[in-house]
Amino acid sequence: MKSKRRPKSNSVKHLSHQLQNAFNSLPVHLSIIVISLIWTLPTVGLLISSLRPKDDLLESGWWMVFQHPFDFTQYQLGNYIDVLTAEGMGQAFLNSFTIAIPATVIPIAIATFAAYAFSWMEFPGRQLLFILVVALLVVPLQMTLIPVLRSYNHLGLSGSFLGVWLAHTGYGMPLGIYLLRNYIGSLPKDLIEAAAVDGASHLTTFTRLIVPLSLPAIASFAVFQFLWVWNDLLVALVYLGGTPDVAPLTMRLTTLVGSRGEAWHLLTAGAFITMIVPLIVFFALQRYFVRGILAGSVKG
């Protein structure tokens, strides 16, 4: 009889323990649900607005669709069709890729080399130079626009992709060096010394040891830099001007909406179209992104 009662007693205790844990974690779960709803509410409103006709958008708010949520006549794809078939959108997509890919790869390469040098190479003024680089994080981007633009006009870089690549490289470098230096500097010193004892040069250590071990941190910075460059309007507007041949997607959308915002209903659909590529990049690198952020927070 004892052998039959004991499992029943254990199952009751186990169920009681689960209920107690669920009750204790209920406030946390409710808080997460409320914060998630508040966080996603603007995006939901933007999505619904992008699917409504222009006249309905001007007459009422997006939340009015919930009066008759299953009345599908109040939704349409006209805004998306207008944006996708607008003249110059295909060229704008290509220009965005032409700007974003090199403007992400170049600062990653330079920042990784610099982070290794600041972490494991001995040279005079290393700490002072690193402090100066990190201090550039507090310099407002807007302060540099006019001096850099004058230099570009003098050098003939204004209105060219090379000028935008260099600008984004300079603007992203302090953050990249800071993030990567914290990660690379926290790698085991014994590992670096063992490579040196085996006769590995700094270049060999960097390419075969540091880069593979630092992929999470590199991916984290890559996500930040790509999202920044892809969504940028200010830097492209200043250094590329209004030339349609080199205008990225963000600039093309502003001209599509109009100088007075009279076609702002197209902006809602255009926003979701521009989100596609950053979302693909983010979800593709999400695993490395989370690992890189957590590793940096623990080791730094």
Automatic annotation (TrEMBL):
Organism: Coleofasciculus chthonoplastes PCC 7420
Keyword terms, alphabetized: Cell membrane, Membrane, Transmembrane, Transmembrane helix, Transport
CDD domains listed in its UniProt record: TM_PBP2
TM regions (residue ranges): 21-48, 92-116, 128-149, 161-180, 209-230, 263-285
Cited Pfam families: BPD_transp_1
Biological process annotations from GO: transmembrane transport
The family this protein is said to belong to: Belongs to the binding-protein-dependent transport system permease family.
Positions of the ABC transmembrane type-1 domain: 93-285
Subcellular location: Cell membrane
UniProt KW Nucleotidyltransferase keyword: no
PANTHER family in the cross-refs: ABC TRANSPORTER PERMEASE PROTEIN MG189-RELATED-RELATED, OSMOPROTECTIVE COMPOUNDS UPTAKE PERMEASE PROTEIN GGTD
Keyword Transport: yes
Membrane-topology annotation of the record: Multi-pass membrane protein
Gene Ontology cellular component list: plasma membrane
Entries under InterPro entries matching the protein: MetI-like (IPR000515), MetI-like_sf (IPR035906)
Protein name (record): ABC transporter, permease protein
